[in-house]
Amino acid sequence: MILTDVIIIGAGIAAHSVACRLCDRGKKVIIITKSNKRDCNSTLAQGGISVALRDDDSYMSHYEDTLTAGCGLNDKEATMTLVKEAPGIIRDFIKSGMNFDKEPDGSLSFGKEAAHKLARVIHAGGDRTGLMVMEQLYKNLDGRAEIRENEPVIDIIMKNGEAVGVITRDKDGNFNTYCAPYIVMAAGGIGNLFPGTSNDSTVTGDSVALAYRAGAELKNLEFIQFHPTLLTINGKNFGLISEAVRGDGGILVNEKGERIMEGVHPMKDLAPRDVVSRTVYSHTQKGENIYLDISKIKGFKSRFPNVSEICESNGVDLNKNLIPVAPGAHFHMGGIKAKPTGETSVSGLYAVGEAACTNVHGANRLASNSLLEGLVFGKLTADNIISSDRKANPAEYTMPTTKMKTPLPTKKDITKIMMECVGIVRTEENILKGIKYFEGFMPDEKGFISLDPRAYTDKDLEIYNMLTAGWLIAKSAYGRKESFGAHYIENDNIHH
Ligand code: SIN
Prior knowledge:
Layout: E1 2-3, E2 6-9, H1 13-24, E3 29-32, H2 41-44, E4 49-50, H3 59-69, H4 76-95, E5 110-111, E6 121-122, H5 129-141, E7 146-148, E8 153-159, E9 162-169, E10 175-179, E11 182-185, H6 206-213, E12 218-219, E13 224-233, E14 236-240, H7 243-247, E15 251-253, H8 273-284, E16 290-293, H9 300-303, H10 305-313, E17 322-332, E18 335-337, E19 349-351, E20 356-357, H11 370-386, H12 411-422, H13 428-439, H14 458-479
Helix pairs in contact: 1-5, 1-11, 3-4, 4-11, 6-14, 12-13, 12-14, 13-14
The site of succinic acid has 9 residues, from helix 7.
């Protein structure tokens, strides 16, 4: 058994933000990730970080935009904390060495993205913000935390209703037990539960499934954001085309060059993401091809080097100024119910970043609020841990003996049913079909309880987590009868 002060599951921006702060205060931290530390959504993030740092901006304006995009379902206190803490935390991050893009006069460069009243998105390396932010965080952490890679967490170890540790399997097949008074879940969202996604291939709903098995309360699982513009060729997605492209003048057009957002929303191409995604989807469902017309953007390749590389490596000729796009799963607004300071309903278990639902995003996340959430709530979670005095309560894991009654499905099977059941446009009938599908794989009448890991490979257990998360999402979607933001029920006349 390995004992430490804090265990962090996941290795993206939220995990590193927590770890840096804890290590500054001398805590012993172990980060555990199922893959390589760079395999996460944070490194793929393009657009940037929204923060009210301009003289003509204010955190109140950022707050209002966050609430409007979220259809007002956001937790107002948590949202206020996010936007108010943001400027100070970003200034500190810049002081630590982070280099955001600048204007020729040396001031910060602000990009515009959907549903923001003004340009307030800071970025780095043009559209390589996530990568540059993570490189800075690796530097700031400076080897002070132990990072265990290629070691999936199989379960959270519980003792008398408290989270006290985790059980993992390393790349040599050994089961390892880690115990600590604080377990921080920061393993991201659910993108790969869908056929097309902007997410890293490792993001498979593990946070939701692990927390569910630990008995944690989950919230708003039905709110799944689809990004309107993934590079899409012959129905296959090849990566994100940042919303900042539309912020800089990119326009969504059909094959005849007609604008598809005209008359749909007053903000047109910069309407909230759920609105734009549904509009693009309604066209692609009719068999039309939709493009992002970039002809009005000067110096496209230098402003968007990452997007340019994604396009060119997939055979898109940028001289034609048309990038073929379609929506794909991008961000989970729902997740483990948590406070901005990380506490969940389970003592000893904390959640932060996309894994958590502090409900700052409501029914639809405002663009570039997610890296921000990782940095801000990561710091608040670490500060909370620093000022708490939970005692270690180590325990061994009791190997479960449950086995599947039916063979596991393929990932492709799961993504197909998820798109049908809880995709961009939903119907009650399809949601019920999804619930029934998932329940067909339930190994026990008590639900998706822990399987005997000795009988299954890591890939099998990943699929089991996908089934678990899919079932929970479908049930959550069934519980919300009215459309709000990303939860859109067809023929529902009460869309908020
Ligand atoms: C993007 O660059 O379009 C993604 C930014 C975000 O998800 O907030």
